[in-house]
Amino acid sequence: MSAPTFEHAVHRVRSWSQEEYGLNLSAFMDEQPALFGFLLNLSEEFEDDEHEQLVRSALLLREGFRLAALRVLPISNVVIEDVTTGVVEAFEALDLQEELDLERVVAVSRSPFVFAEVRNFLHQELRKGIPDAQLQQHNLMIVVDILIGCFEEALEIPDGPKAS
Asked: Is 161 within the bounds of a domain?
């Protein structure tokens, strides 16, 4: 996803009225029931504002892929489990190092550009704001990377031209 497309998606999501947000959330729930269920299960793990912004981040990814004309197929529980395992292992490897810094977190993410952009979106959208030091070590970043990975794994890749 390119920078202009992602910036356009951020602008669109921020400008949604409550009604538009509700319609997009409803469509997301219908399109991605397993991923929505995954997010719903996380509601006890996060503050209300944080959880709401994780859901908005998923909607932001949905909008970004839609604007980039990339079709995302329904994400299965198997994809969520596989992506979660990979992301958690990558983050655990970072935890073994003495100091966790944001550049390393971005570097091990599945999609560094999108990860950094969603992280910035999340940071700006949280009303109370989370200090950078907390964001770097917070489970929010793990969930953001899982969301990105799930969307990427579910992309419909059209067959290329057939060789004759």
From this structure: no
